[in-house]
């Protein structure tokens, strides 16, 4: 049996998805009531990130902004399929995606996950949630800007999840690039074409990747990339 279907991990994830829905409801309603197109919303977020990224995410410190259960399961399946033992996650928040990925490490027989989160209070909650799920021995959550916290990462990465500030995906990828194994998977959530040049970079095969949008949740910027070099 896998850890997602039953037991402690399944219970903690069910509780966290409920908590997340309650905590983020107002924010989601506020965005949808603006009547803005998705393009406009992405544009607004990118503008805010460019102006003051720390203030933007500081203002969202009480929000989960989490992956959906379907996307979380996709991350688990991807990590199981490539028998991942070394994972990095950009954008840990309260640890929901971290739990899906750490559960895959556990079911793969062990490994290490490095997560990174700008907001100290969120990182602390992520650690508590990992502990509640019995996965804290597999995951380290680094506090601070990923452009600093991910400078020291060992090689041999099997999988990277990019789910932080939209405008930083290319910077974070470039930082991790020398540590990626051939065949490693990079899962991008909210990897939008108008942000950072990330999509253009990974879709150019000359850069050593093969990449395409995922069919899941179209419009949410889900991109699956494999390292081909
Ligand atoms: C979309 S949420 C991540 C959700 C999480 N992956 C989950 O499924 O529960 C993005 C997170 O990235 C964090 N973040 C934004 N910019 C960051 C940066 N430069 N370094 C580290 N974390 C950052 C934000 O504080 C926010 O909590």
From TrEMBL:
- Which PANTHER family does the record associate with it? PUTATIVE (AFU_ORTHOLOGUE AFUA_6G01830)-RELATED
Q: InterPro entries in the record, alphabetically?
A: SAM-dependent_MTases_sf, SAM_O-MeTrfase
Instruction: Please tell me whether the keyword Methyltransferase is annotated for this protein.
Output: yes
User: In terms of domain of life, where is this protein from?
Assistant: Bacteria
Q: What is this protein called?
A: Methyltransferase domain-containing protein
- Species this protein is from: Pollutimonas bauzanensis
Q: Where is this region: Disordered?
A: 210-229
Pfam families to which the protein is assigned, alphabetical:
Methyltransf_24
Q: Which GO terms describe its molecular function?
A: O-methyltransferase activity
Q: Which UniProt keywords apply?
A: Methyltransferase, S-adenosyl-L-methionine, Transferase
User: Quick check: keyword Cell membrane in the entry?
Assistant: no
Database matches in SUPFAM superfamilies = S-adenosyl-L-methionine-dependent methyltransferases
Cite a single GO BP annotation. Answer: methylation
């Amino acid at each position: 049996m896998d850890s997602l279907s039953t037991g402690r991990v399944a219970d903690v994830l069910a509780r966290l998805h409920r908590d997340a829905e309650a905590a983020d409801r107002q924010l989601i309603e506020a965005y949808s009531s603006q009547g803005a197109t998705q393009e406009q919303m992405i544009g607004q977020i990118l503008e805010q990130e460019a102006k003051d990224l720390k203030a933007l995410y500081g203002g969202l410190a009480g929000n989960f902004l989490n992956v959906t259960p379907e996307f979380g399961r996709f991350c688990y399946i991807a990590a199981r399929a490539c028998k991942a033992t070394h994972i990095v996650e950009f954008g840990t928040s309260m640890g929901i995606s971290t739990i899906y990925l750490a559960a895959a490490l556990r079911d793969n027989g062990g490994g290490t996950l490095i997560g990174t989160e700008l907001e100290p209070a969120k990182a602390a909650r992520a650690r508590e949630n990992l502990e509640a799920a019995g996965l804290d021995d597999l995951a380290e959550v680094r506090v601070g800007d990923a452009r600093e916290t991910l400078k020291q990462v060992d090689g041999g990465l099997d999988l990277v999840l990019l789910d932080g500030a939209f405008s930083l995906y290319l910077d974070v990828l470039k930082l991790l690039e020398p540590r990626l194994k051939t065949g490693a998977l990079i899962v991008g959530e909210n990897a939008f074409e108008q942000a950072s040049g990330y999509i253009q970079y990974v879709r150019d095969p000359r850069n050593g990747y093969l990449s395409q949008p995922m069919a899941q949740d179209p419009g949410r910027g889900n991109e699956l990339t494999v390292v081909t070099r």
